[in-house]
C-alpha cells in the first residue's frame, strides 16, 4: 500500500514562525506607520489649538478686550497675550494654552511672516512656512476683530 506523506505539524509550525518573524521585520519598511501617527498627532494639535483659542476668545469677551488689537487675558496657567481676542502667535502664548512638552515639540516663530505665525513641529526639527517637505502645524494670528486665526496642517514631510 502506498503512503501519502505530507508535512508534519512541527514543520508547519516552524514555517509559520519564520514567516511571522519576516513579516514583523519587513512590514515597517513598507508601511509608513510612524508618518501616519505624526500626521494624526498634528491634526489633534490643530483641534486643540482651535478649542483653546475659542476658550481664550470667550475669556476675552468676558474681559471686554475681544476687539482690541493687543491685550492680555488672565488664566490660571499664566497671562495670555491676545490679538483681537485670540491668542497671539508667540511661543509663550501657545505654550500656555497647549502645554506641549519641550522634549516632544518645537514651537518657533516663523521668520518674516506677516501676520505673525507660529510653527509647531514634532521633535526638535523646526521648519519654515514655505518648506514643501514640512511636518508641522502653522498658527497664524488674527488680523482683525471677529476674524479667527488660521491654523494649517502640513503633513508632506511626515
UniProtKB/TrEMBL annotation:
Name the UniProt record assigns to this protein: Prepilin-type N-terminal cleavage/methylation domain-containing protein
Organism annotation: Alkalimonas mucilaginosa
InterPro entries found in the cross-reference section: N_methyl_site (IPR012902), Pilin-like (IPR045584)
Pfam entry (one): N_methyl
Family matches, as PROSITE patterns: PROKAR_NTER_METHYL
Transmembrane feature ranges: 12-31
Record SUPFAM superfamilies: Pili subunits (SSF54523)
Keywords (A to Z) from UniProt: Membrane, Transmembrane, Transmembrane helix
